[in-house]
Amino acid sequence: MNPFPDHNQQDGLATIRWPLRLTWLGMWAEQLVQGLWPLLALALFVLAVLMLGIQDIVAVDLVYAATVVVLLCAIGGVFYAVRHIKVPSRIDALARLDASLPGRPIQALMDKQAIGATDAGSIAVWQAHRARMAERAATAQAVPADLRVSHRDPYALRYVAVLAFGVALIFGSVLRVGSVVGMAPSAGGVVSGPVWEGWAEPPRYTGKPTLYLADLKEEPLYLPAGTLITLRLYGEVGALSVSETVSGTTPTDDTQAAVVVDFKVAQSGDISIDGPNGRAWNIVMLPDAKPEVEITAEPEVAALGEMRLPFAARDDYGVEAGEARISLDLASVDRRYGLETAPDDRPEIIVPLPMPIAGDRSRFQENLIEDFSKHPWANLPVKVSLTVLDASEQQAVTPPADMILPGRRFFDPLAAAVIEQRRDLLWAKANASRLAQILKAVAYRPEDVFRTQTSALRLRQQIERLEIRATYGLTDEVQTEIADDLWDLAIELEEGVLADALERMRRAQERLSEAMKNGASNEEIAELMDELRRATDDYMRQLQRQQAQEGDQQQENAPQGDTMQMTQDDLQRMMDRIQELMEQGRMAEAEQALRELQQLMENMRVTEGQPGQQGQSPSEQAMEGLADTLRDQQGLSDQAFRDLQDRFNPNSETGQQDGQEQGQQPGASPQQGQNQPGQQPGPNDGQAQPGQGQGSIADRQQALRDELRRQQGRLPGGGTPEGDAARDALDRAGRAMDGAEDALRRNDLAEAIDNQSQAIEALRDGMRALGEAMAKEQNPGDPGQGSAKGNRKADGQDPLGREQGANGAQGSEGELALDNDAYGRARELLDEIRRRSAQTARPEVERDYLNRLLDRF
């Protein structure tokens, strides 16, 4: 290669001037890195050691020895660099750049034509070749430098140095490098220039960082109480001394001469280091405030006796723990009957306070939730105080608050009597003989007070144990066992273990009546009212099954004057009226209404059929009711879908066209506003019923949910797999309807449509399961002449009015065909598109396409 190209060659190489320069600089960097890496690694490692202050914690002789080793290593690094660094020339850079191009065009441009210089054709070919090589050379790019030194550093020592330096940057200080200057030997061999180091470490619970005193300016320094101050003195002993007034203690001579001085901040004051390069700080102590706690409201009591006591606590650095102490207020106890005896010694109740699991504990509100129903002090006056503790073991205690210790209340008179005697037993062991006498009087005629002989025998057994123990002594273990047995007996008497639905309903009515007489709380009355509703629903289902088995002949022959005919809707209205009166505080009227309900239930004859439905079985009536509910839910879903379209496309006329061509309101189904054949107006006619286009769509959704709840109470087929599947499906539909109603009230139409779709699907599943149950109940020879079932078999229709196929399969024709729901299918597709468009893991192209579909439809 010619290192001195002529003028023409220089013109051809002008295009590679900058790539050539950059390649040459890269070769320089490559040589420097590969030759100087030992010196760089040594420098980083030494800086890391000095910044971490290792020279301050080892002997001075060891520091001197390390310095000699470092100097020898540095000399070796210089020799290594001189040996391995080679100065790159322009020719080397040109060769490397030319090797990176195909065909070595740079070499071709620097060559001369050897033969045919006088031949015109040969000259033309040579010039064409040079032009082609010039174009190829014009594409040259700078060759990157090879900075890898792994072949020269097989043990990766350079990475160790970099890691040590990074740790020193995080945990060390650059100022510590200056401390090595004070270790240099003076002319007389004595360490000159004493130095010092200091740290202020606040208590860990404050969450504040450790401070390096050498980095702080001489100005007021605010430190929390209990901060640990550590000072290290280097150099000649006595050259530096420490004086302070923040610890509250008197320094001794040993402290003044110590190499390491540490103390805690207990008050505001000054800290000074006297001597060469000394410093002083004015410390302002931040006191640790005591925690605070208070009871924010009166305790709330659940129906079964669970107490909820709200409280609030706060502290400047956070509350660590707390507890509630409950002691008996003996002076306020009504000392009568079994409580007249002096009580046995019983320790106060200590319950830990709940603390936030995550989050800030400096200020929070929580609820102490406990059940003291089985404690001897339940429903007795007590004093409650709350205590909280912070990390510095400071306590805060609330003044004792007077309250009645909440516990479960028993409304059955016999259960309440057993619980009272149990309390007297736990009050004092001396009451054992008195308890036995009272319980024997209660159980004198068991047939008059006990509903089952089992309960009477259990009480008799406890009486015998009490009599024996009263004579020979009552231990703590036996006292606890008898109290637990009496509690279980009272629960059995209160709630009962009755399997008969009528008896459970009567028990629920009696408990509710006793609760109203005894002034029960709203929570207790609500719980008892729900129990009455459940018991009444069980009783109605039992009567339905009984009537289905016995047929209608017994009803036709029954004397009309001895029974009352009413529907389940009438019962629900009566119970709603009772609950409304109780919520308004009109207990006398509510009790009178409850007595009327009891009389009606004693003499009623439940009639599931209504005019136009006497020929239908309960399963058929339930199927038709679910079909109506499905239609109404479909109409509500369509209305919500149109409202959502109108929100994003206000100019759309879709919402104005649907339902208004027939003079209907938007969202009204074709059946809305009129009764179906064979149906009478429901109990809520005149109100905003589902499917009537009255009221808001959320109110209509709520009314439809109430209607479904009523139908669930009348659903037959209990105890069979198909019946259980139908009930589970209707439960899912009810939950979805509740979610839809909540979303509609929040004006979240998208979520409401999702929940309504789930409700529709669950209703279909329930109807399918109910249809399977009906198919199993029917036998080919059952339908007789003149019956509704026989007529439908003759017409080739299923219970929903759909045409059956040739082999008995369900056809797709008819208004209620479950598989021919165009609106439902369209909504399912829209929901699926919306769900997929919200998945960020999908490709952006697919999500854009889905969003365009949503914008269009």
Task: Write structural notes for this entry.
There is one protein chain. Helix content is 49%, strand content 12%. A hairpin with a 4-residue loop joins strand 10 (300-301) and strand 11. The longest helix is centred in the first third of the chain and has 35 residues, at 17-51.
Our estimate of the beta-strand percent is: 5-15%
Computed over alpha carbons, the radius of gyration is 47 Å
- Counting helices, strands and paired strands, the structural category is alpha+beta
| Envelope shape | flat
What is the end-to-end distance? 73 Å
- Average pLDDT reading: 75
Strand tally: 19
Number of helices: 26
Low-confidence stretches: 1-8, 186-191, 552-564, 605-615, 652-694, 779-820
Major beta-sheet overview: 5 strands, antiparallel
Question: What is the helix fraction of residues, given as a range?
Answer: 40-55%
